[in-house]
Amino acid sequence: MTSWDPTLYARFADHRNRPFFELVSRVGAGDPRLVVDLGCGNGPLTLALAERWPQARVVGVDNAASMLEAARSLDTQGRVEWVEADLSGWRSDSLGAAPDVVVSNAALQWVPSHLGLIEGWVADLADGGWFALQVPGNFAAPSHRLMREVAERHERSGELEAALRRAGSAEPATYLQLLAGAGCEVDAWETTYEQVLDPSGQQEDPVLEWVSGTGLRPVLDLLTEPAERAAFIEPYAAALRAAYPRTAVGVILRFRRVFAVGHKVSSPGYTERDAGGDPSETGQLS
Ligand SMILES: C[S@@+](CC[C@H](N)C(=O)[O-])C[C@H]1O[C@@H](n2cnc3c(N)ncnc32)[C@H](O)[C@@H]1O
Fold it and tell me: How far apart are CA 19 and CA 258, in angstroms?
């Protein structure tokens, strides 16, 4: 299991939060009873779901104790139920009710079997429920390609390549087909953000710092001994500096992300009234 550092992860909160809000703006649920955040992380975005739907029961699921600890300390009102579980074996029937909204932001790329799990999660949704996911679509970007190239030259190349192979996501069309096949009307899209890192020029390696909070975690978990870690980080940092040169506005990291929102409408006899409102009237779908 990959380790997570809540403090390092939170350092780029603005860049990381924006895709989440763009994702959930396409969820048209009016008055959901049960909202679930899969791979909820350190909590602020799960709390944003609780704020949007103040009457809802909200559950955050994650398998990293460190992230859940940070989430619990942020949730001073005890608004969210924080559940420690691995998504590869998690079904919402453990909650005793069918979710009306399931959101997963920047997490499913860490669950190798996630394409095979989505159908079950959608089946478990209440009629009229929503399933919304966002995953990075940047595995071909220099940040990740260089990671794999440096791993190939490292003395522990076999283990590094295996650890890096575990992470991955699919194309928007794949999620579209999957959610449609599970009985949803689907809205799938991609966005590439031109993220400006370190505009004030205080960091030597802002891209390295960015990936250290997410994509590089499997490497950092494996290479705990200082010399073997340095044998990876030094050439990788140099390659990143060349691939992402500093500009007048800062270091620009192009970041492609993949989004899909499914609205489960296929059950016989389902009407918008059953879901507590017509989503087209919530103003969330414009
Ligand atoms: C990049 S963070 C995203 C956190 C949050 N959703 C956000 O958008 O800020 C990925 C999260 O997925 C969790 N995660 C990764 N693999 C998981 C798994 N198999 N089961 C449950 N959670 C997992 C990690 O612990 C981490 O908190």
Answer: 9
279 CB near ligand 1 (under 6 Å): no
67 lines ligand 1 (CB under 6 A): yes
Q: Is the Cβ atom of 106 under 6 angstroms away from ligand 1?
A: yes
Kindly tell me if the per-residue pLDDT of 277 is higher than 60: no
Q: Atom 15 of ligand 1 has which residue's CA nearest to it?
A: 110
| pLDDT tens figures, 82-126 | 999 999 999 999 999 999 999 999 999 999 899 999 999 999 999
> The pTM is what?
0.88
**Residue range(s) defining the domain that contains residue 40:** 6-266
Q: Report if residue 281 sits inside a domain.
A: no
Pocket test for ligand 1, best of 8, 17, 35, 40 (most atoms within 8 A of CB): 40
Mean pLDDT computed over 250-260: 97
CATH at 89? 3.40.50.150
| Total length of the chain | 286
For residue 284, give the nearest of 130, 175, 171, 174 by alpha carbon. 130
Any ligand 1 atom below 6 A from CB of 86: yes
71/63 Cα distance (integer angstroms):
12
Span 130-158, pLDDT tens digits:
999 999 999 899 999 999 999 999 999 99
Q: Is residue 274 part of a domain?
A: no
For residue 34, the CA-to-ligand 1 centroid distance in Å is 20
275 falls within a domain = no
**Residue 283 included in any domain:** no
Q: Within its chain, how far is the Cα of 131 from the centroid?
A: 13
Total domains, the chain: 1
